[in-house]
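In the previous chapter we treated chains in isolation. Here, by contrast, the input contains two separate entities that must be folded as one system, with a combined length of 619 residues.
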Amino acid sequence: MRTDLDDRILRGLRELVDAAPVVAPPALSTVERPRRRPVPPRWVAPALAAAAVLTVLAGVTMPGTWWPTAAPITPGDPARPPGPSLPAELAPYSRLTGELSTAPVGPAIMAYGYSAEALWEPNQSLVLAADRPAYRMVDLALRRGVRNFPEGLLPAPVALAPDGAKLAVAGGGRMAVVDLTTGGVTREVAFDSGGPPPPMAWSSGGRWLAWGVDAQEQAIALLDTVTGEQRRFPVTGRVDSLAFHPDGQRLAVRVSTEVPLRILTLDGALERTLDVGPSAGLAGPGAWSPDGRRLAVLAATKSGDFETDSIVLVDAVRGAQVGSVDETFSTARPEGHRGQSFVAWASPDSVLVFRPGTGSIVEVPVTGGAAQVVTRFPMESGRQPTGVQVAYALLPGTAGRSDDTAPDRGPVPAGLVRLGFTTGAGGLLVLAAGAWLFRRRWLPL
Amino acid sequence: MEPPGPLERLPGVTTVTELPVRQRFDAAYQAQFAPLVRLAYVTTGSMPAAEDVVQEVFLAAYRRFDEIDDPGAYLRRAVISRCTSWVRRRSLERRHAGSARWLPTDAAPLGPDATAVRAALARLTTRQRAAVFLRYYLDLPQAEIGDALGCRPGTVKSLLHRALAVLKEHLDED
């Protein structure tokens, strides 16, 4: 709607402009003939196209070469800080975590997984270096994982050796032993991975690996990771859990169809049985105390419609209960589900337990006393730590470290590099094509 | 009645589907020269500069006229762009040579509104002046003003709002 002001502006502007008359010449005299815009040399377009293709190929075929990869840590490396340690807080979930096979970090103090709820966030299998806050994804576990709906890709189960030097990966029809110093597989044997995740256990020195077989036969399998020798002992039921004695010469085994624990020698001979009560299983592969005197077991008790688990300590000779861990795992779960809160013996008189509710790993004295938080996971919505394992042979004397050091996540995973290259190159091609088309239609001076 | 024979093409007759480039250019020149000079005049404050700018714009446009879809919009954009550069160069020269007058010295006496508008325009930026001319003299919608200035309609609104505040100040003084 026109106002008085508008009218006055228009009047004034017209008078002002018309005061200087404009006379156009009859025709523009041009001395130049219309000519086409200069055409770029013929080699430019093919050269640009070739450059784009080479860029995409480089991203697809040379993963990790655009970022420096960490050299394997060797014993005696002067840059290596003394002694193992755990951070006060573990690093949060990140997709930008490098791969163990291409950027190894040496012995690990922890192995664990992340279960992510969001569809666009993959589940993860990770290790944490023993001497610094360096994290790597166990890419072998991802490659040999199983796709499931709705969980997505479930990484293959792993077992960390007590000395942190090796990692067993059970998947893809093979049981592989990964050397954490080089990131490479040193031993591999056939393994029927069609069933649920098998229980796995390492001897304290990291020489023997034992696991339960539940396929065409049910048995206990043993692998000497030094010589490659394999042994197999049939059992009458599914192997529920197993744990090596600290001397590495005996195994405690729980078979699903039997109540007592079996104590076997490495030749498969039954040394004795140990009655620890009904519905109990070994608390984990590190259930045997460092002095061999006690075993940590999960004693299930029914409460209404649910079973609750509590960590009970039994005499390794008589089987009698000699104590319980103050930090009981009292999450009520439907019958058949058991918790995984026991982590390892921190010392002959204390155990480590994982509290999923707070994300903390806590050291609990078995003789009484206050529990202390050793480390914790950041509490992130939709991401849950799973399968927490600690290299318990490294624990005595482990010092906590301050959390003011940014985590070393290593080079970006090769898959993300390829995705970035392809997306970036594709985007540039689209932009270039769009700009070319746009300039053909409109050209500002 | 005999059935029509096959279609014959008569020699010397050309079916015209599009005017030759030169004819389109000449038509645009005749239609746009004066308004563009006035636009440049209001923007630069100098008639000789306005004529020079518009001549240069037409010469440059002639070289690629067959690729231009909307000559009016294209020419307005080009004129404003060159005027902006001219004003910038002039500002630098003025710092050394002293200020120059906004209008030719032999301009005829103006009425009160024109005098107020002239004084207000002298206080505006190049883009504000161009926006005022396109809005009031050519009565263009905001979208076309934005196209000529190379900015969004929201920016046009802002330019006009500030320009109007200055214009109002000068017009209210009368």
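Chain A touches chain B through 29 residues (CB under 8 Å). Residues 40-64+413-432 of chain A form one domain. Compare these points with the single-chain example from earlier in the chapter.
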